Amino acid sequence: MRKQVEGVLDNALAAEELDILLLSKLSIAHSLLSKRDVVLRLDTPFYSSLKDYLKLMRPQIMVDEATDFSPIQLGCMRALSFPNIDSFFACGDFNQRITAHGVNCLDEFEWAVPKLSSRQVETPYRQSHYLQRFVRELVGDLDTQKADLSAEQIAGEREYPPVLGLGLNTFESIVDWLSEKIIQVYLGVGGLSSIAVLVNSEQEVDQLANMLSEKLPATVPVLACPDGKVLGDDAGVRVFNIQHIKGMEFEAAFFVGVDELVKTFPELYSKFLYVGATRAASFLGFTCGNKKNSCKDKKT
Questions:
Q1: Fewer beta carbons within 10 angstroms: which end of the chain, N or C?
Q2: What are 164-184's pLDDT values in tens digits?
């Protein structure tokens, strides 16, 4: 039932309803344009409106991070491919789905794209054995399809187990802990390296970056990366909103406030952990505001 405000009926469509309507129109247009007799009559008044749809269509549709989209949205994208070619390519990792409406399995993909041919890619992440084991255990908690998470071992390098800072409930205490760990990373690799600090909101990016910059030596560059913009050289510390970390790789990654992450994204908490953990090659760290690790039993 639509809500009524001051006697006015709110008829605004929800985003999902709009997606369904869009899929219906695009699917009908795609089906009609697949018929040769219809294409030959596009200049007639009855079929002329299909020209607008034809302008939107492309020889090939390619979708990255496809698991973040709903089956309906993927169906809309597929309907934008030229009917006589019908070329649609999508790639993604079910474990890296960080939207509540994203597809969870191949069955949902096949609903959106009938006769879909799927291939599993087993390109390994470059990670230490410690982080491999952490990710394997984490994937065991995820509610998606299990993948073969073989990872490329970093030859000749030391092993660093993940670290957890407890009772860090102020920015000052977090910055003190992070600064110490960042210096340890640089000592471990023998120089400057790429480090990501992952916060839970866009508002925290600048504040934490400024405080870290003041705390760390001047030789250690610290950059705020608003809206996920990748700034500066690879060697240095970058502060990101955790929602913008896909597709990047760092020597070390630090989660700030995993207990708040649980509260902010209760349904996607493990997914964000998985994405963040697979960004790190050698070092992984977490801060938690609680003095006890109350997050350890949380699962998606």
A1: N
A2: 999 999 999 999 999 999 999
Q: Is the dihedral of CA 40, 41, 42, 43 positive or negative?
A: positive
Is-contact 33 54, C-beta < 8 A? yes
Cα-based angle 143, 241, 276 (whole degrees, multiple of 5)? 40
Most confident of 24-33, 218-227, 264-273: 24-33
pTM of the model: 0.75
Q: What is the token pair recorded at 290?
A: 């609680």
Q: What is the pLDDT of residues 177-221, one digit of tens each?
A: 999 999 999 888 887 789 999 999 999 999 999 999 999 999 899
Is 126-288 CATH 3.40.50.300? yes
- Taking the domains of the chain in order of start, what are their residue ranges? 4-112, 126-288
Strand partners, 52: none
- In the chain, helix, strand, coil percent, each to 5? 40, 15, 45
In whole angstroms, give the CA distance from residue 212 to residue 149.
Answer: 34
DSSP 84: T
